[in-house]
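Side project, low priority. Logging it here so it doesn't get lost.
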Amino acid sequence: MSAVDDARGVLERVFAPDAVKVFAMFAGIWLLFYWFGNQLGYTDPFILALVRRVTFLSAVYALAVLALNIQWGYAGLFNIGVAGFMAVGAYGTAMLSGSPGGSPPGLGLPLPLGVLGGVLAATVIGLVAALPALRLKADYLAIVTVAISEIIRITFNSPAFANVTGGASGFDNLPTNPVRTLLLTEPGSIISDPTPLGQPIFSLATEYGIQRLTVVNTVYTVGTLVVLLGVYLLLERIGRSPFGRVLKAIREDEVATRSLGKDTQNFKVRAFGLGCGLMGLAGILWYAMGPRASIVPVNFRPELTFYIFIALIIGGSGSNTGSILGGALFASLLFEAPPRIAAIIGDRFDVAADPANLVEALAPVVEGDLMPLAGFLLNNIDTLRFIGMGVLLILLVQRRPEGLLGARKETASAVSLADDTRPGTAPERPTAAADGGGDGDE
């Protein structure tokens, strides 16, 4: 065996645990965005804010992808109404925990009850939608779910419900950020006195020139990562349970699963409701209480659903670890990195050209002048980002449809099924594809 094979074997053993994969990915993201901030001339406090922002977006995208993975990756349910269920969760929490004196008024309930109510609302709406929708197959289910999502968004946007939802202006009367309640005596004012818990944290931050708002947002981001870990562990347990194995069997062959006496419709409804509830939780953490909390109908347009689907495809359908990797990689490399790269290139090469259209940008190329084309590309980086997402999606579907971790092997049963009664026969655990995809999980 060569030294290269030895090194490859060592790396495979080191990165075999899922925790190592996730930590290595986040460490790489943090280093990359630290470098971005350094190249852009940011001071350390602003670099911390940049790293915090990309970490938060990675966490909430990963949470939404995990929710979709229960439906699509485990049960094969093609739900493209993710954004609508996220909206139900966010609006539900705001209505329950918003101040009664606000506009629109809330009920003023404690925040934990508001969060629980938002999650339950998304779950109930999901269950109600699932009863008729899950009788449909594939494309028809997708059409119904995206229609449900748009009905939810348009309802929240309607002037007829403006007294409850705020209409097109959204819900300005947001519940108090829980981290501000823990760290500040006046949660509504970032300059108020710190609580006993907040005093040492703010004192340490002051020594390094870090603003209070950055501290509050960083603590909230850490809390979001803790919630993400809890959801991941829950779904890992579910995936290995009899319930999870039945869902995978339904995905592979529903007729065969039904022939074994399983009520497949019941299992699908429960999986759909669970996924919708977790989507509602992602909407709550992202839009109702997040660092830039804003609940307006425009935040829940259909493209949000497709972003989450792209992230799931990147990580690997059916893999919970892949869902976290896909969500974080999408949020960081595809969404947050391009504008920073464009800014670095523009500063480094002093690109000042600003052509009005592609024709004006391409014409000087014939004469060897690339600056107009470079200026056009940099000024339209947001549009190019969406084009890049489409190209990446096509390449993934063609070259690696299973994603990064979608073809891993896992034990299909809780106990060994091998015949170990024969002398000299060592028991074996049969394996089948599937932390998420592949051949015959059940």
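Brief comment: The chain has a mean pLDDT of 85.
Revisit when time allows.
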